[in-house]
Amino acid sequence: MLYYLFEYLENHYNLPGASLFQYISFRSAMAFIVSLLFSTIYGRRIINYLQSKQIGESVRDLGLDGQIEKAGTPTMGGIIIILATLIPVLLFTQIANVYIVILLVTTLWMGTIGFVDDYIKIFKKDKEGLKGKFKIIGQVSLGIFVGAMLYFHPSVTMKEKVIQNTQIVSETGKPRLFSDAIKSTKTTIPFLKNNELEYAAILDLFGDGYRDYAWLIFIPIVIFIITAVSNGANLTDGIDGLAAGSSAIIVLTLGVFAWVSGNIIFANYLDVMYIPNSGEMTVFIAAFVGALVGFLWYNTYPAQVFMGDTGSLTIGGIIAVLAIAVRKELLIPILAGVFLVETLSVILQVSFFKYTRKKYGVGKRIFKMSPLHHHYQKSGYHESKIVTRFWIVGIMLAVLTVVTLKLR
Questions:
Q1: pLDDT tens digits for range 115-142
Q2: Do the Cβ atoms of 103 and 318 come closer than 8 Å?
């Protein structure tokens, strides 16, 4: 809203300083500051409100050190993250931007699913929360919406880099760096020289003329990524500060990609896809990072609040959509490696237990407990040490992800 206000003041009254709001860097900085202040200052009030309503975590005794002491800690703290993100986004972004619209819908959509899940657990005293099938329906529905918007919306385009020896010039007579905006389902493949995969090309296996149906490939991929990443974030949210800190690292890295992809100069220099209008996501990302950091103020050990599914599902959904929007979804296994390992540990544990029980009559386990962070807790590591080391691994993976811009 402030963006449009100051644009009006600049155009009609030449208000000094109003042009600052045209710069993504300025609006991103302001969004981060407002988000951080809101989450730290008003976060305390929200926590007090949750305590007054006795919205506390019910803990199932799994034999972990310090677990029982966490009973009654306020949960549904994801509300802090959501509000601290939405307020600066509404203030400082171009709300009409298609990518901002998609991210706003994602935040509210996944936040609602998580909120309903937490509500059932707390007020209905049902530890299972929202039925798994309803969660999946919600995630699939969001995937269809996001996939359809990214595929069909006319503002979602990309520009391909012009080969240097071609004589394509602009209206000014200077050589052009990029072609005209086109609709495309191309995405980035890490570590390869010609590092682009065209989803539509998969349909060439069935013969010519099928590329118009590329949405049949693209939308299911979007559904899978959103479902996988949101569930991965949910599984990672098990000890104080782990999910929020790991997510902040991931989102900050995606912010680099969004800014580079939306800037024609840096897109040319780094030889990455130039995605018009995508730079506006940097403002959203700045607000989201500020919200996560502010939430960490109260969520680090010993946690004064838990994010609950309200937060974890929202975080995972946003990360997935950001990665898809900047055409870096194939980097998720590296960038979100912490989520991936946590998810794989659960899959391996459950699968191996069922297999050995069926074959030998007694179920055996690979880990002392899953997800993986609980295995280290069972091994005697303090949770603050586990979280810090997971953050370090997350930073290393983030650096490796950024380096892929040049490693081809």
A1: 999 999 888 888 788 998 999 999 999 9
A2: yes
CA distance 129 to 120: 5
Contact 233, 312 (CB under 8 A): yes
Confirm if 159 and 181 have CB atoms less than 8 A apart.
Answer: yes
Q: Which of the 8 DSSP states describes residue 54?
A: T
| Tens of pLDDT, residues 238-253 | 899 999 999 999 999 9
Chain-centre distance of CA 33, in angstroms? 20
- State the Rg of the chain over Cα: 23
In the numeric block, which tokens belong to residue 367? 């880990």
Contacts of 125 (CB under 8 A, 6+ apart): none
H or E element: which one contains 26?
helix 24-52
pTM: 0.93
- Whether omega before 371 lies within 30 degrees of 0, making that bond cis, reads yes
Contact partners, residue 44, CB within 8 Å, separation at least 6: 298
Q: How many residues does the chain have?
A: 408
